[in-house]
Amino acid sequence: MSDEQQIRVVLAKLGLDGHDRGIKVVARILRDAGMEVIYLGLRQTTDSIVAAAEQEDADAIGLSMHNAGHMTLAPAMVKALAKAELNTPVIVGGIVPDQDVQPLLDDGVAVVLGPGASAEEVAQAVRDAVANAN
Amino acid sequence: MAKDTRSIDELYAAARGGERRALGRLLTMVERGGPNADAVSELAHADAGNAHIVGITGSPGAGKSTLVGELVADLVEAGQQPAVLAVDPSSPLTGGAILGDRIRMEDRNANAFIRSMATRGHSGGLALAVPLAVRLFDACGYNPVIIETVGVGQVEVDVVGAADTAVVVMTPGMGDAVQANKAGLLEVADVFVVNKADRPGANDVRRDLDLMLDLSHMTGQESAHGYRPPIVMASAINGDGNDEVWATVIAHRQHLADTGQQEVRHQHRIRTEVRARLAQALSESAESLMDGDGADQLRRAESAQISPNQATNELLVQLLKDQS
Predict the structure, then answer these.
(1) Phi, psi torsion values for A97, nearest 5 degrees
(2) Which residues contact residue A55 at a Cβ distance below 8 angstroms, ignoring those fewer than 6 apart?
(3) Where do the domains of chain B lie?
(4) At the topology level of CATH, where does B49-261 sit?
(5) Do the chains contact at A87 and B113, CB–CB below 8 Å?
(6) The domain containing residue A22 runs over which residues?
(7) What is the ipTM score, two decimals?
(8) Mean pLDDT of B223-249
């Protein structure tokens, strides 16, 4: 992959959610797909993620959510980015019930990935989200 | 990427005015190299020259990022505007990277600018991108500019060695003085930090370092003007010794100023950067020569009609003729 296409992804757990096994797997998947992962880890806020997205010039933001807070937190993330005039796509992964997927997409989340997504699907979803945002 | 359609001049003006998004975009251009990076460099060149450049290196897990995070937070609280360039290795197989330095630096640093940079594959890329990124931070009013690298590769060590002040972080339990002696980090250090000093063995590390510095003195390796790198004991995560680390860094800067060494460091840094850029330009010319007019010599060398040595000499003549 040439530098021109080098995708930089910020990965974070937003809010009080200590389940970070999944996000570590995703970090490795994206690294092995040739992307640069800026790993923020646990207990981030919308502000800290916006700051990272600005300073790192991120192409996408991946949120890992396992605490049923996604209906509140993911739209808050989208709004915080818009307020900072960033059009960085937000990708949500983790445990999201089927009936919540469409409302999240309606609120501006780019993609929702569930536990069954393969490594290829995860990497491709990020590439597609980045391509669609530009 | 079409997410920001502003020109480089507009972005640069915005970045100098304090817009972080614009500075983030410019850093991406610097990282990618090529004509855009050169344009950014030309702009920044005119406005840079004020920042104290501090390099911090050491083994993986030595606590560099934690130390940098704490130093940066203290600097922000003291009203300064520091920037950090945190360099992590790329995978040589996939080109991907996990940049995990920020995770240690997220608290108490709203006024700082932290940028993660992967080493990426291309030869000498780091040696080109780091000085440019530092110059850009400098031009945008950030001071000090801290470069953090893992002290494993020659380029990473060189990058830190080209700073005004190079800090080497060591920890107990990571090998004895013989390891420290062969690591090549000793030669570049202006300040040693023994981190995790609350752990057993910290005093042994200090003693071993002291011994190595005694030996440097004995063999005449000690730097000019009688400077002996101080050793600071710290436990960065607990906030112990961090003040002393920074005070020692500032004292080193004063030493540079008092002895005229600051100018020497500057000259060394510029020379290193120009050499890296020349090497990159010549390397690219050599590649295109081997793909183009020089393919014949290459083929003859491949089929053993001439030696690689002779092919090189013939190509070198051609290369230098093309350059002039």
Answers:
(1) -60, 150
(2) B20, B23, B24, B113, B114, B115
(3) 49-261, 276-323
(4) Rossmann fold (3.40.50)
(5) no
(6) 3-133
(7) 0.91
(8) 89
